[in-house]
Design a protein that fits this description.
Elements lengths: L4 E5 L5 H11 L1 H7 L3 H14 L4 E6 L19 E8 L10 H15 L6 H14 L9 E5 L1
Antiparallel strand pairs: 1-2, 2-3, 3-4
Length: 147
């Protein structure tokens, strides 16, 4: 059986699969926070759902709705196997509502615990400093996430 890939704009029903791919692919986040793939998927699901209109997905063989993080990707025939979120020139990147972001922070505190909160600035501080002085040019499309 050969793998057949297709690339298409994401649809709202792809959001759970996109979150599962994110949880599997972003192992640096998992290591940085000391969490597993399903937990990472849950933490970022609302943000990734808000980004669906700016997301393109890679689809394999039209299988079930996304990878299972408890099984190796090579043992599955998932539909969504990758994604890219782009921000078009002049657009603002979406990551959910203020309530979504507040809820995500609350879930992070629950998952990391008070003793693990040091991981947030240790992980995101360098990223924030790297991009703090960089702004998108008016004619620039950029890739926000790629998995």
């Amino acid at each position: 059986m050969s793998a057949a890939f297709a690339v298409r704009p994401a649809a709202p029903e792809d959001a759970p699969a996109i979150a599962r791919v994110f949880g599997i692919a972003f192992d640096d986040y998992r290591r940085g926070f000391g969490i597993d793939a399903p937990t990472l998927s849950d933490l970022w699901a609302d943000s990734l759902t808000a980004r669906v209109p700016a997301t393109t997905v890679a689809v394999l063989n039209g299988g079930p709705a996304g990878p299972d993080p408890t099984r190796p990707l090579t043992a599955q025939v998932p539909a969504v196997v990758g994604f890219v979120v782009t921000v078009r020139p002049g657009a603002t990147e979406e990551s959910g509502t203020a309530g979504d972001r507040q809820g995500r922070m609350g879930r992070l505190v629950q998952v990391l615990g008070l003793r693990g909160l040091w991981r947030l600035p240790a992980f995101f501080g360098p990223i924030g400093m790297a991009y703090a002085r960089r702004s998108q040019a008016s004619d620039e499309l950029y890739i926000s996430l790629l998995a």
